[in-house]
Design a protein that fits this description.
alpha/beta, two-stranded antiparallel ribbon, 42% helix, globular, phosphoglycolate phosphatase
């Protein structure tokens, strides 16, 4: 099977924005008296909506309070996010390789689209990505498949020719709900064991082997695939 379309999560899949995320969450949380929250606890929420993350970290469930925290986070992110976000070493090369193979490339993220643009426009031509869908572009966040389905409609692609790549169980659930193939990457806080619990083609240490995925049987054991290429 050769995929024509590769859709990526952003945080902890293409880029490490954890430093900026931790700063923004900590500034908001501590402003409201929520102290003693570890960096690891904050990083474990990456990929979830801001409201869900603040609820998990603070214990607050009141929608109006979570909405206010979200607004404050966005203001903090204007200062701290993009300057503290870095593509993983292999990201640019892998995406350029896929593009040169004729693939369509997209991003589906809970992160705001304009924030993703701030980063990708520094490293790629303006028309490099065929589609970017951020949190403001959908009514329901991942793991709801709305983002992937919207991308496939706009790109005029079928589920069977699409691969979704992400680092978290939220991403795995999203691919499963959208009925597209999934590849997990271990760039983030989610373990191989956690990702393996979901349907997947491969679980990779990073993106570097991704351009080889389409050349192999989707049911080839991951161990054999990795042995061939490491």
């Amino acid at each position: 099977m050769k995929y024509t379309t590769y859709l990526f999560d952003f945080d902890y899949t293409l880029a490490d924005s954890s430093r900026g995320i931790v700063i923004c969450f900590r500034n908001v949380l501590e402003r409201h008296g929520h102290t003693g929250i570890s960096d690891e606890a904050i990083k474990r929420t990456i990929g979830k909506t801001l409201e869900d993350s603040f609820s998990i970290l603070s214990g607050i469930t009141a929608p109006e309070t979570l909405t206010e925290y979200k607004k404050e986070y966005v203001k903090e992110a204007d200062t701290y996010m993009t300057v503290n976000t870095f593509f993983f070493p292999e990201t640019v090369t892998v995406l350029e390789t896929l593009k040169n193979q004729g693939a369509q490339i997209g991003i589906i993220s809970t992160k705001f689209r304009f924030r993703i643009r701030e980063m990708v426009d520094q490293h790629f031509p303006k028309d490099f990505f065929d589609i970017i869908i951020g949190g403001e572009d959908v009514k329901k966040a991942k793991p709801d498949p709305q983002g992937i389905k919207k991308a496939l409609r706009r790109l005029h692609r079928q589920k069977s020719e699409t691969l979704y790549i992400g680092d978290s169980t939220v991403d795995a659930e999203t691919a499963q709900a959208a009925k597209v193939d999934f590849v997990g990457v271990l760039n983030g806080m989610t373990t191989r064991k956690e990702l393996t619990a979901y349907p997947h083609r491969q679980i990779l240490d990073d993106l570097s082997l991704l351009p080889l995925i389409h050349k192999f049987n989707p049911y080839e054991p991951e161990k054999h695939f990795l042995e061939k290429h490491i």
